[in-house]
Amino acid sequence: MGANAPTIEDGFVVWIEGLPSSGKTTLSRAVADRLRAAGRKVEILDGDEVRQMFSPELGFSRKDREIHARRVSYVARMLARNGVAVLVAMITPYETSRQAARAGVGSRFFEVWLRCPLEVCQSRDAKGLYERSRTGGVAKLTGVDDPFEEPLNPDLVVDTARLDVDASTRRLLDFLAERKLAAPLAAA
Amino acid sequence: MGANAPTIEDGFVVWIEGLPSSGKTTLSRAVADRLRAAGRKVEILDGDEVRQMFSPELGFSRKDREIHARRVSYVARMLARNGVAVLVAMITPYETSRQAARAGVGSRFFEVWLRCPLEVCQSRDAKGLYERSRTGGVAKLTGVDDPFEEPLNPDLVVDTARLDVDASTRRLLDFLAERKLAAPLAAA
User: What pTM, to 2 d.p., does this model score?
Assistant: First the structure.
C-alpha cells in the first residue's frame, strides 16, 4: 500500500438488515466495491449463499433463524479480527438475533437497518419472493406471514425507499468514515 | 512490520488429519504460536469447537462428516484468501472429504497426515474417547468402529508416534518454509 492509502488495519462487521427487497444485497455489493477500490479486504456474507452452505437443514422458524444468525456472526467475527471488512446482508427479523450478533462480534459491530415500507419492497420484488408468496410457493416470508421486529438499536438507518443505491452507498461510507473505519469519500 | 519480518501476505490452509489422539490439536496450537510470533495472522479451526458451532445437528455418518468437512473448508478458504494462516485440526476420515476440501480451497491447501498407530493413540487417549468407546459411551469412534481411510495424497506425513511435539512442530514449519509460506526457523 502507498503512503496515502488508508492505514486502517482492523476489521469490522456491518450487519445490514431489512425486509426482502429492501436493498441489502445491492448495497453490500456497492459498498464492497468502494472499500476494495480503497485497498480494503472485504467479504460479503449474503443471506442466501451463506444459508445454503451453513444451514441447508434449517428452516425459517424463529429458532432456526436465530441459530443461523449465530453461525454467521461467528464467521463474521473470525474474519473481522483478521482485518477483514465484513458486510453481512441478512433479513435478521428478530431483535434477539441482532443482539446476539452484536454481543458475539464485539465493539466493531455496526447494525444498519434498511428501512423501506413493505409496499415498496413488494413492488420491487427483486427475487420474486413476494409473488411466490402470493401464489403459495413461499411459506413464512418476512413482512408477509412472518414478523420483522422493528430494530431497537440500529447504529444507522438508511431509508432505501427515498435514497437510491448511490446515495445509500454514500450514506454508509460516510458513516464508516466518521468512525475512522474507511477513508473519507472524495467530493463528488 | 519491520523490514526483516516475513513479507508473506497470502494465506493458506494446513489441513491436519489423523486418528483421535494423534496430536492434531497439540500440533496446531504449537505451530500457531510460532506463526503468530513471526507476525502472521492465524486461526485454528479445531474439530470439536467448530462442529459445535456449525454442525451440532450433524452426526458421525459418512454423509454428515462430509457435509461438516465442506463447511469447514468453506470458512478456511474465506480466511485464507484474506491473508490468514489457517490450521484445521480435524479427523477427516474419508478421502472424498479431503479431496473436496482441497478442491474448495485451491492451490494453497496442504494436507498433513499425523500418522500414529491406533495402539499409541489409544494409550494416549487425550480426551478419554477410547475409554468411553470401550464402555459404550461413544458410538462410531474413528479407528475403533468407524473407518479411517489411509490418506492417498497427503502433502506431508508426520509420524507423531516417533516425533515429539517440538520435532513435529519443526517438521511442519520446515515444510511451510520450503514453500515460502513461513519464515525459515532460526537454527536451534
Answer: 0.89
Cβ proximity of A87 and A31 under 8 Å: yes
Asked, for residue A4, whether it belongs to a domain, the answer is no
Q: Which residue of B has its CA nearest to A83?
A: B82
H helix count then E strand count, chain A: 7, 5
Indicate whether A184 belongs to any domain: no
User: What is the spatial distance between Cα A167 and Cα A156, in angstroms, rounded to a whole number?
Assistant: 14
Q: Is A127 within a domain?
A: yes
Q: What are the 10-residue block averages of pLDDT along chain B, 188 residues in total?
A: 46 97 97 95 92 86 90 94 96 95 93 97 92 88 92 97 97 95 72
Give the SS3 label for residue A74: helix
Which among B43, B71, B82 is the nearest to A43, CB-wise? B82
C-alpha cell at A91: 433479513
Q: How near does any CA of chain B get to the CA of A23, in Å?
A: 24
* ipTM of the complex model: 0.87
Residue A51 lies in a domain: yes
